[in-house]
Design brief:
The protein is of the alpha+beta class. Helix content is about 45%, strand content about 15%. It has a domain of about 55 residues. Strands 1-4 form a two-stranded antiparallel sheet. A two-stranded antiparallel ribbon has the order 2-3. A hairpin with a 2-residue loop joins strand 2 and strand 3.
Length: about 90
């Protein structure tokens, strides 16, 4: 089950509180499959709104992932000869 905030399901329709320009907070238990089925019933325009609501949300990058990237950047700067040119590598794929 997942918690879904800011949305509600009624009569097999999926609505966003953003459509009505109201600020409400709802927590509804839905399985992922139930959520997907509800979204499938939306018009293409409303599906885009749901997509924008999901992807416009700031996602925090885990600290461990940040460390991995910083470590790789440090190694790349210290040993640039280890790096491969993408154009050259992609020719061999």
């Amino acid at each position: 089950m997942i918690k879904l905030s800011g949305f509600f399901v009624s009569d097999n329709c999926f609505f966003s509180n953003f459509v009505f320009m109201e600020t409400i907070k709802l927590n509804i238990d839905l399985s992922v499959n139930q959520l997907i089925e509800a979204v499938k019933q939306l018009s293409p325009k409303d599906r885009l709104k749901v997509n924008e609501a999901i992807w416009n949300e700031d996602t925090e990058i885990p600290v461990e992932h940040q460390r991995i990237v910083l470590n790789r950047m440090t190694k790349a700067k210290a040993n640039p000869e280890r790096l491969l040119d993408w154009d050259e590598v992609s020719k061999n794929l």
